[in-house]
Amino acid sequence: MVTIDLNGKVALVTGAARGIGAATAALLAEAGATVVLGDVLADAVRTTADALTKDGRRVKAVVHDVTDEAAWETLVAETVRAFGGLDILVNNAGIEETVFLADIDAANVRKLLDVNVSGMLFGHKHAIRAMRPGGIAGRGGSIVNISSVAGLIGHAGLGVYSATKGAVRLLSKAAAVECGRLGYGIRVNSVHPGLIETPMGDKMLADYVKLGVFADDDAAAGAFLTAHPIGRTGKPADVASAVLFLASDLSSFVTGTELVCDGGLTVA
Ligand code: NAD
Question: Taking the domain 10-263, which CATH number applies?
């Protein structure tokens, strides 16, 4: 029997208080990894981690803002010191804004770029330094970056978000090539979810109604359902399973790829 066994691995998941990050942290921990959950939502990330601890998982909650580079350095160092390594980084934290390009606001644009792109770049810097040979963890690893179908195809109202998620797609490929060529033993891949039932997914549908793209909530939900040929929108656990594969040694020859987890949205 083939099983995915992450016993002995240490993972860090950003934006893990809720949604896709929480489901991913739960699944990695269920597979045996020790998981550090980071998020800016202090109470929520502790509550999520506490529930996993009660289920017997090895987890720790940390208040962590991905835009703060110094915090990344501390988080990676503390993780390695406390748990003896760092094998998996899931760059999941992200924010979204649904706005037409003619109406974008400079501060909001910078915020999206800061969280979705700069935050991820800082994560790469400090995880790579730790994971590469000679680093404080030093045994290679897997970095999984959560992009989106909005990093592959265009949607009205998602121009700013798409700019960040397209950046994540190519950051992942550049990082995969660099880590490969430099002999670091670090694989880097991106995951591209379709519409997933999380606070972010729900907010996006509501924002589309506010923008007048859809008449009401039912019309928005119906249009997105139709857009997914598989006949449903996604659950956080659907994305977590894709991440688990890329995080594990089952994907040991997979780097620089984009794993599309969208119920067929981008091929319809
Ligand atoms: P969510 O809003 O439900 O959860 C995102 C989490 O990230 C929250 O807990 C939030 O507090 C945290 N976060 C935000 N800014 C942060 C920061 N600066 N530092 C640390 N944590 C921060 O969203 P989700 O739907 O679970 O999305 C997770 C990822 O998946 C995001 O990168 C998102 O862009 C991507 N995604 C989501 C969907 C979807 O339909 N829900 C689709 C494609 C991609």
Answer: 3.40.50.720
